[in-house]
Amino acid sequence: MSAASPTEKSRRGWIFLLLRWLTAFAILALLLHFFPMAQLRDALSRVPQTRFLAVLLIYLVALTGGITKWHVVVNSAGAKLSFAASAQCYTSGLFGALFLPSIIGGDVARLAVGISRSARPAAVITGNVADRFLDVAAQLTLVSLGLILLPGSLPAALQAPARHVLVAGAAVAVVVLSVVLILRRPLLRGRSIRFRRRLAQIRHAICSISRHPHRLVFGWLLGTSVQGTYILLTALVGISCGLVLPLRVWLFAWPLAKMAAVMPITQGGIGVREAALVLLLAPFGAPAARVLATGIVWEGVIIAGGLLAGLTALLLRRAETDSNQP
Known about the structure:
Layout: H1 6-34, H2 37-45, H3 49-76, H4 83-99, H5 105-117, H6 121-149, H7 156-188, H8 193-210, H9 213-240, H10 247-260, H11 272-281, H12 288-324
């Protein structure tokens, strides 16, 4: 059976992209169907344009923290990227996560730019994986903080699921590490020299990262700060929509909703994130219509930020091309 041509793969990719966007709109339409439209319109009308622009501006500033984190972690693996190159990689990834026809479009775009700018592609790949692990660690840190601050006010219906999420996250990490250690020798047996050489490059990148644990700690702290900023901004949007909740509730619910959005159901997790947030905040007495309105406004911030990130990546690429011309 012959492999699909590049044109056929591209067509399938765009069809897949369209389906994921349609699924996102379908989930949002379903949510809108069950919630009072009058309450939703009232909540959305409460958000002034100046507040939206201020939240977007702070969101963009926080993105520079994400760029710095990625830059530090990837270079710890030996990628030797300039900050401008890291910024181009990161902003390309943000744009790709929303608008590229792939489940992992953001990572594909980020790696494609990074590999083209670095003489050590294995370091870029390894550093990006490490950065993803730090993102997960930051989310689990915030959830744990929310649980610590909610010992007496966490609804009984959420106590067991919350513990299960944390236990499952730790269990998955242990299982993955165990499988890698157990299958390391069988997987290497009989492999080609080229494969072993690439694996050696990845091993070298991992060793390079392990020699700089303070940078990983810095990345974890910076990632937690960036995600915490997003939570504060979402809470601020919620207040504008008439949704006033204790910050500890947002610390608990927001990271879990973001984790749910990682599932490759819709493009960028749109719709899934809002549905998860409605379910997670319902036991705390949060009006569903105001939660959904908060989620819709926040999606607007994310989409606007993604478009500006794509524009930034384009400008950085043009600046690089102009600087290389004689």
